Amino acid sequence: MATSIGIAKKDRETIAKQLSKLLADTYSLYLKTHSFHWNVTGPHFNSLHTMFETQYNELWLAADEVAERIRTLDVFAPGSYSQFGKLTTIKEESGVPDWRDMVGQLVTGHEIAATTSREVIKSADAIGDEGTADMVTGRLKEHEKTAWMLRSLLK
User: Fold this and answer.
1) How far from the centroid of its chain's Cα atoms is residue 122's Cα?
2) CATH number for the domain formed by residue range(s) 9-153
3) Which of 55, 99, 139, 153 has its CA 20 to 30 A from that of 46?
């Protein structure tokens, strides 16, 4: 059965392509945050360990929400490390930085995801895809808030 939700196939594919970048950002940020949760050390261990856990759980749920929106648009969602690596601009961390660098990298990651979110919202608004714009507006607010909270730790 053909998808008939009031958005042309070409427009659904365009939005899905942008959502795929947001999915890649989200998943990359999830992996980084989870790794930092496991490996954080230092005087703020307990608070950062707990904060990172809250954040990676939120990102895990967000990745599912974004992927399911892509599927709602009748496009297949990317789902491999290699696909995500090509789509995201969040830099992978293969080492174990100190807690300050961890926090700084996560601030940068959330800011990148916020920027990606804004791009998706603009495109979704332009074609009348209120469902995507609404969902991604929530993601934008979460990335901005998380970046602010993390950034506050470095002051």
Assistant:
1) 17
2) 1.20.1260.10
3) 139
